[in-house]
Each structure stands twice: as structure tokens, then as C-alpha cells.
Amino acid sequence: MPVVILRLVEYYPSETELVRILRTTGPQALVLSSEDTRAAAGVARQAEAHAPGIQLLGIGWSNSPEVLLELMRAGVREFLQAPFDLQAVEAAVHRLLNAAPRAPAGAELSEEIYSFLPCKAGVGATTIAVNLSVILSELCKQKGKVLLADFDLNSGLCGFLLKLQSPHSVVDAANHAFSLDESLWRQLSSPAGELDVLPSGKLAPGWRIDPAQIRSMLDFWRRYYSVICLDHSGNLEKYSIELLHESRYILLVCTAELPALHLARERLALLRTLELESKVRIVLNRATRKDVIRPEEVEKLLGLPVYAILPNDYKGVHRAIALGKTVEVGSELGKRLRQLAESLLNGGENQAPERRRFVEYFTLAPARYTFMPGKEGPAS
Ligand SMILES: Nc1ncnc2c1ncn2[C@@H]1O[C@H](COP(=O)(O)OP(=O)(O)O)[C@@H](O)[C@H]1O
Ligand SMILES: [Mg+2]
More exposed terminus of the chain, fewer Cβ within 10 Å: N or C? Predict the structure, then answer.
């Protein structure tokens, strides 16, 4: 039975620290040294109180009745005496893990992972990821925190767009993927207002992230954040595909231009073969009233509804970059981004969207023609 050691603590932690460890690692079992039996029993009681159902295993040199009784009273059901006998260890671990709940009780894992995937470099995926993450972090303030992680390892811009000076990056986080805890994470991530950001770091040619590292980082983030936004390069690297599999929504960003739409179709075909198509939401960016290709035609070309239309706002985006801020909330683009954030959080449209609801949310209603006058909206 494979066992993963989530955290090694070489002392008896305080209750506060224990709670933090339990929350950020979400273990199924806790192994306690009986060297200081009273301290071990204290930790066992606290662990059971904060993570009901957690399995407790005592280990130590002495199996005197006093030690065993004190541990038993604290809820420790298994004890292994050193020096260890491999078979006895295996049997004890087997019993423990069979008794342990699959997911540790009390560990709430966020499902809200949003991937931003440009169909072609330059269509605006990063701009949308940054702006949307900031809006989400404000909308979710009561519920929990939001993370923006930049997985465009060669041309990452999230840190720059938010004027962050972080020395740490996705590369550092991946290097520590199996030992992430709250205090290390606080050093690695950078705050930008309510939002936490993990920039992509300096160019690291040829550097790769292992799928196991990705899963481990995501497991940690899921416990820590209520929403996780992931910016992708669009090249669909192996780690990028791993992230897409873990995502709830893949926001495929394109513009109403033929080359972009051609590549969007290719990306979609690949996502279909990976059985990821149902997660895809098409975001049509930089839309203007002069666009030759209308949103209806984009839908026909891609075979999917357009989920959101964001207007072209060169000045607004430029001003935001110069200030290291988001686009103005009152601008047309700011309002559309907020609608997009609200709809993602609302999540209901995931189940077989009705045309009507879709229309209400987004810009396929006549409202969208506020920036596309002279056309009738489609019947809803
Ligand atoms: N809605 C928009 N209106 C005007 N310019 C935009 C808009 N969205 C993005 N841009 C601009 O497009 C360029 C590419 O954006 P970026 O977010 O880096 O694209 P990607 O991540 O898809 O490669 C940037 O100069 C950005 O300022
Ligand atoms: Mg980008």
C-alpha cells in the first residue's frame, strides 16, 4: 500500500501549529513518537478534535503498560515498538489506512480552478487572467482567498502586470511541491491587495514541472484557496495539460480574427481528444463593432457557444498596465469582466445551459450590442 509522508515534524507542535499542519496537509493518519508520552497524548487529543476520524499511530522504544494506557486514552489505537519489524509496520499501516476516511474530515477542497488558455499568443489571456483574479479576490473576500499562478514559464507577465518584485516563482513552488506548508507558502507567494500571486520567474529554458509536482501543489492550494486561477502559455505543455485536467473551467481566449479562430479550432480539437471539451468556455476578447466576423459566426466556426465577449479597450488596458492596476471597474471592459467573474463563481450554467440563462448572463443579449450597435440580438 503506497504511503506518502506529507510532513515531518521533529517536535510536539503547539495546538495552533498542529491545526495549521492538519489544514494544509490534510493527512489521513498521524504518527506520534511516545518519547514524551504526555505531550504525544496531548497532540493526539487535539488532532482528533480538529480532524475527526484521523488515524493515530504511536511509536516508541517502550511499550510499558503506562505508556500504552496513556496513549490509548488519548485515542491512539495502534502502537509499534522500536526497533521496527517490517511486517508489523506494514500490517499496522494497512489497518490504519483501511480505517481512515478517503478524504480527511474537515478538509474543504476548492473545486474552483480556472485555467486561462490563449488560442494564440497575444489574444489577451494573461490580461484577462490578471484582471479577473483581482475581481474574484474582492468578490470572494468573505469566503476565502484567491491565487493567481503564472504557468507561462517562458513569457510570464502576471508579476509585471501587477508590479510585483517577488524573488520567488512557480519554479520554487514546484521544487518544494512535496513539502509545502503554510509558513513556506507565505514566503513563496506575493500579495497584491486581496490576491495572492505566484509569478512565473526568470527564464528557465528546458525546465520542466513533473505532473506529480503539479498535483501536489494543487492539493495544497485547494485547501488554502477558494479560487485558483492559472495562466497558461497556450503551447499546451505536458504540465499545462495536467493543470487543465484539474481545472473546472478552461477559458479559451480568442479574438474575432481568422488566424486566431483557426488556432482556436485546433486547440479545441486537441482538448476534445483529451476529453476536456466540456470544461471549455469561449471568451471572445478585443471585440469591436467593426469586427467582420460576428460572434454568431465565431460560434459556428468553433461549434461552441461564446461564453463572454470582452470589448477592445486599448487605452483602458494600457493605463492599467502603466499603473500596475486592473482596468477601471466602471469602464465597459471592467463591467464585462465583473460579469464574467460573477458567472464563473455562480457556476450553475455548467449543467446544460439554457439559452435564456446564458443570454441573461452574457453579452449575447441585446445588451452586448452596446458596443456593437446596428445589429439585432439573437432570439432567446
Ligand atoms: N480587451 C483588450 N483591449 C485592448 N487590449 C487588450 C485587451 N486584452 C488584451 N489586450 C492587449 O493585448 C496584448 C496581449 O495581451 P496578453 O494578455 O499578454 O495576451 P496573451 O496572454 O493571450 O498572450 C497586450 O498588449 C494587452 O495589453
Ligand atoms: Mg499570456
Answer: N
